[in-house]
Amino acid sequence: MNSKRFLPKFPSAFSLVEMLIVLSVLGILFAVAAPNLFSLMQSSSLTSEGSLLRNKLTQAQQIALSKNADVEVRFYKMQDPSAAELEEQFRGFQFFQFNAEGQLEPVTQFFRIKPPVIISERYSTLLNPSSNKDRAGEKYGFISPSEGTAEVPISGGVENVDYVSFRFRPDGSTDLPGRAGGDTWYLTLVQGNDLATGLPTNFYIVQVDPFNGRVSVFRP
Q1: What does the H/E/C string look like for 150-219?
Q2: Per-residue model confidence (pLDDT) at position 167
Q3: Can you tell me the distance from the alpha carbon of 98 to that of 165, in angstroms, rounded to the nearest whole number?
Q4: The pTM of the whole model exceeds 0.85
Q5: Which of 42, 83, 100, 106 has the fewest C-beta atoms under 10 angstroms from its C-beta?
């Protein structure tokens, strides 16, 4: 009897050439898919931070209504060394309200926008106090957006940084004046640095109606 016919057969291993071919194909597929995957991740991050800002602004309006008192919304221009972001951009915000002694005190925690998302100063009317052309309306309380400096937590310490602010009124409106042509006040969130070459393909705009305080969103 031929005993060889009863020997088990083991599958042969991949040869070096076959492994190189497989790795090459995977490399090509990854090179094709990586840009789309990276773009999807960026879009998700931008949407997440934009939605957070929109929801928090709506919350600030609700606080003003429920407590029958102004709520000041501050946007901070700052670095974020913990994320290696050393250029000053608008990366944080917080809400304040007057206490019984008539002093502004925080009514929410400090919200830090996750890098690389920032609020673009160049493409946000709410961050440009000079865009308030209705200076004659100051006597009616239309003074926003206004500027100031305040302490914020940065890299385990506290630093003085610049901020721009506006307020929600007890009736839900804002202290922002109307804009020419019915334009709204808005904030534009983008990925990375605030480039001067124009808006990127992907951005997130949060709009604030000065008269009723309604917060809405625009996406390209």
Answers
A1: EEEEECCEEEEEEEEEEEECCCCCECCCCCHHHCCEEEEEEECCCCCCCCCCCCEEEEECCCCCCEEEEC
A2: 95
A3: 15
A4: no
A5: 100
